[in-house]
Each structure stands twice: as C-alpha cells, then as structure tokens.
C-alpha cells in the first residue's frame, strides 16, 4: 500500500473477472502490462482507474468525484490522448467534450450549460486553437473569436455590432490575462458578453 497526497493506491494482482483486466502490480524495474491501476481516496472509494496495455496507457482513464460519480473519461491509445475526453457536472450531465488525435486536440471542443445547451465551441487544428464561438444559456449566438498563428486574434465577430480595432485588442488582452491566470473562475464568455452584448 502506498499513500500520497490523501490518496491511497492499492496495488494488487487479481485474476480476470468477467473480461475485466487484472489490477496492476508493480515491481522494480517499474513495468505495467495489460492491467488497470485503481487508486482509492482516503475513504476507500475509487478515485481513478487507469488502464494499461503493453506497458502504455491504453483505454479510458476514469476519474470519480468524492460521491463516487464519474467526473471524467479520458481516452488513450498507445500512451497518447486519442478519442473524445468527457467531463461531467456533479449531476452527471456532460460539461465538456474534447476530441484528441495522436495526443493533440483536434476538432471542436464543446462546453455545455447544465441545461444541455452549448456554452462554447473551440475549434483546434493540430492542437492549435483556431476559433472560439460563444452562446447564451438559452442557445443564442453571442460572438466568435478567430485566431491566427495561435496567439493573434484575427477578428472578433459579434452578431449585432462591429468592434473597433481598440476593442478587438482589448478582447485579446483580456483573453491572454484569463489564460495566464489559471483562475478557475475566469471565463472567456464574460469578456465576449462585455464587448458583444448591446
């Protein structure tokens, strides 16, 4: 039994049960073959399940909240993110989904309001952000931001008004502050609402 940061990782080897891969067992040198590493919280509840195949992350990593509800699914193939990552609200509804290919975000990442409507869409091309689209909780288009060369905003589109160059620069500055702050309360949507709503 290993304890670290309030989590307990119990490492055992069990036989196959109903097509379920065995729990991982670690020896030195450190190897993981075809198994699932199950980590538990301090109350003995499953916190995370991590599948391995041929010594690499392979399959869907599942994380659970303190109530035992699924909070995240993250797909891996040969050690790299590959497939659609899903994050869930506490009530079990989908909060976001992100497509990955060969370890990079590829396609449209979507965030949802708890009512199920799309909150935000981000388009990624080869892991680089391309365009963000924002929506109100009742489903109306709020605005869009398109990037050029990852860092520069090419344009900000609002449905009912045209922004000046200074306003577009302000949007870029505020986006950069949000992305640099790592503040979980900071939200791109608030910036777009400020500049796009009349």
Automatic annotation (TrEMBL):
<dbReference type="InterPro" id="IPR011652">
    <property type="entry name" value="MORN_2"/>
</dbReference>
<protein>
    <submittedName>
        <fullName>Toxin-antitoxin system YwqK family antitoxin</fullName>
    </submittedName>
</protein>
<dbReference type="Pfam" id="PF07661">
    <property type="entry name" value="MORN_2"/>
</dbReference>
